Amino acid sequence: MLPADYKIVLMNFMRLGISDSQPNWLQQRIKATNSVFAILLAILILLLISAIIFATQIMTLAVGISLVIVFLMLWLHSRGHHLFTRFFVSILPVFVSSCIQGAYHMSNDLPNASAWVFIIGFQVLPFLLFDPSEKKLRLITIVLNVIIASCYELFNQWIVLEQAPPTPPIQVFITIEIGLILTIGLLIAMDGIFVTTNKENLDLIKSVEREKEEQILAQEKLNKTLEELNKSKAEEEKRIWAAKGVAEVAKILREDDSLTAIADKTLVYLVKVLHANQAGLFLLEGEGHEQFLEMKACYAYQRKKYLKKSIAIGEGLVGQCYLEQAYIYLTDVPEDYIIISSGLGDSKPRCIILIPIIANEKVYGVMELASFRPFEKHEINFLLEVGENIAMTVRSIKTNEQTQTLLYETQAMAEQMKSQEEMMRQSMEEIAATQEELSRREEELNLELKNKNEEITILRERLEKLSLNQIITVPNHQVI
After folding, report:
1. d(CA 205, CA 152)
2. How far apart are CA 480 and CA 476, in angstroms?
3. CA count, 13 A, side-chain hemisphere, 154
4. Helix, strand or coil, per DSSP, at residue 320
5. Is the CB of residue 85 less than 8 Å from the CB of residue 33?
6. By three-state DSSP, how is residue 228 classified?
7. CA–CA separation, 281 and 266 (whole Å)
8. What is the pLDDT of residues 8-21, one digit of tens each?
9. Which is nearest to 315 in space by CA: 307, 323, 303, 327?
10. Cα 124–chain centre separation
11. Which residues does residue 278 pair with via DSSP β-bridges, in sequence order?
12. CB neighbourhood size of 22 (10 A)
């Protein structure tokens, strides 16, 4: 067989009775049991050879029986009965060694040194084959081994030899050497377990450290995820807050058609929800070059002040905000810009924000708020959206006002046209009556003229007849 084949056979032998379902510590103890089986087989074979060479019948018999028992135990061990075989292997070598010691020991004679080498060496087997967690089995085998080793005199009484065969020095030497080999082999097996255990402990420590690092990474990832979730939750809460605020402002804007009324109510709500201290709302008034920003409402420290204040386009921050069509946020407020007054005295606000009231790229006014605390980003976005809603409402109200004005003017013009139409109708009726009268007079005049013409014709005819008659009645002498 090749060395590789021996290695495979040895590896297969060392895995007898081991299954993957067993815990690691049990696999190590079964592997140690396999090592003990290998050592026992080697020792027993050497002892058998020694007994045969030196013609020691009792030794040959004992070793032969031990070999049979070891092979039987090895078969049971391979079938999975590791608990029984470990227990048996822990006490069998001590038992056999004690029997040999009892057989060779004679009264008033020193104990057999070679036998005691084996007895003492085999005392380590319970510690080797049983895990510390198997306390009861380990303790039982230790106690049994001590009892067996201490009762070698009983074995001496049971095993009666007429005369103890002499032990040649070479056999004693070989036996001692075998005992040393046994002890060293057992120590190597124990060292293998310790090395394996130490390696497993190191692997376990590394695994624990690796798991700890993984747990730290997982914890960091979890913390990051939680942070992102908390951030998302906070953003969602801010979004809900802003949506609720926009809806509330929209409700306020729908409640009234008066710009002054909705401006006042809107500022009251904004100051309350934003924890601001002062607020003002300026709307665009006038036409053409005469346009200006007029304060429609203001609020200060939860008490209203109705002030008449106008700002020219481009004047101050309010006018600048109108021209730039972008919000202005100041955290370094000028000393003389604005003062917030309360019962505790006058204080300068920490920040001021001006929001253009703009819709469809057309500015309808400016909203200004002052506060002792800085405004957050979502609050600024909220104000921008509110400003757009206010702008659309202002545009709608002004459009309605213009429409109403045009309607009034149209109605007035319609009334005027209706009145003028009535006057024209009356005039037409008068003209028609006049024309009718003129027609009637014309007819009368024509009839009268006709009658006159007829009378003239009759008179003319009569005159002609009269003239003719006068000519006829003249005397002849007058005619001649």
Report:
1. 47
2. 6
3. 7
4. helix
5. yes
6. helix
7. 9
8. 777 777 777 788 78
9. 323
10. 60
11. 300, 370
12. 15
- Within 13 Å of residue 89, how many CA atoms lie on the same side as its CB? 34
Instruction: Identify the CA nearest to 45 among candidates 26, 68, 24.
Output: 68
pTM, two decimal places: 0.49
How many other CB atoms sit within 10 Å of the CB of residue 291?
A: 12
Q: Counting beta carbons within 10 angstroms of the beta carbon of residue 52, is it exposed (0 to 12), middle (13 to 18) or buried (19 or more)? A: middle
CATH 3.30.450.40 residue ranges of the chain are 256-406
Contact (CB, 8 A) for 375 and 274: yes
| Cα 281–Cα 282–Cα 285 angle in degrees, nearest 5 | 145
Residue 20: phi and psi, rounded to 5, are: -65, -20
> Would you state the structure tokens that stand for residue 473, as one six-digit string?
């009645």
Residue found by looking up tokens 């376990």 in the block: 204
Q: Write the DSSP assignment of 43-101 as a string of letters.
A: HHHHHHHHHHHTT-HHHHHHHHHHHHHHHHHHHHHHTT-HHHHHHHHHHHHHHHHHHHH
| Residue with the two structure tokens 């002054």 | 260
The tokens describing 52, both together, are 């045969």
* Topology of the domain covering 256-406: Beta-Lactamase (3.30.450)
**In whole angstroms, what is the distance from residue 25 CA to residue 459 CA?**
171
pLDDT tens for each residue of 329-373: 988 776 666 655 443 345 677 788 999 999 888 888 999 998 888
d(CA 464, CA 148): 203
Residue in this structure with the two tokens 């006057």, named with its chain if needed: 423
d(CA 276, CA 270): 8
At 363 the three-state DSSP class reads strand
- Note the pLDDT tens digit of each residue in 273-313: 998 888 889 998 888 778 888 888 888 744 444 455 788 88
User: What 8-state DSSP symbol labels residue 285?
Assistant: E
Q: How many residues does the chain have?
A: 480
**CA dist 306 → 108, 136, 181, 298, 303 (Å):** 130, 95, 111, 7, 10
Q: Whole-angstrom Cα distance, residue 389 to residue 264?
A: 15
Q: How far apart are alpha carbons 33 and 22 in whole angstroms?
A: 15
